[in-house]
Amino acid sequence: MLLRFATIARVFAILGVIGMLPSFTLAQTTDPLVGSWNFKVTVTGGCTTNCKYIGMIAFNQGGTVVEQRGTAVEYNGLGYVERTALGTWRSIGTLVYRLRMKNFIFDSTGKLSASIVGTSDITRNSFSGSGTAQIFKATGTLNETTSFTISGTRF
Predict the structure, then answer these.
(1) What is the pLDDT of residues 89-126, one digit of tens each?
(2) For residues 9 and 19, what is the distance between their CA atoms, to the nearest angstrom?
(3) pTM for this prediction
(4) What Rg do the C-alpha atoms of the chain give, in angstroms?
(5) Residue pair 71/53 in contact by the 8 Å Cβ criterion
């Protein structure tokens, strides 16, 4: 009887190890974009001051992205852009990805004055690309659309 329980226990142990194998495999198949990158952005349209900024961006497995700017950016009297942006990313071709991110602009009193939704396509080989940023007033109406270029290097 004891031998039978030991055999059953071994079978369950083997099945447990086999059940864990897909999780080990997933770690090996992570997209090469996943990880932290240093980046530089140049706003190429609609900008008059503070048109260049730097920061870090983290691409997470599963398609989320977090950006942390190291440079303060102000948009046409609306106020300063919050330094953290959140969004999504996805592959749209071989080594080409589409990013979509959102952050907020607060006036000098701390009141929300606008939000920004940026969309960009980047090529992972050189981590470079371009995109547009739509700036919406707090009421939800489109205030302006600007264009930008982005480049980065692995951290």
Answers:
(1) 999 998 999 999 999 999 989 999 999 999 999 998 88
(2) 15
(3) 0.76
(4) 22
(5) yes
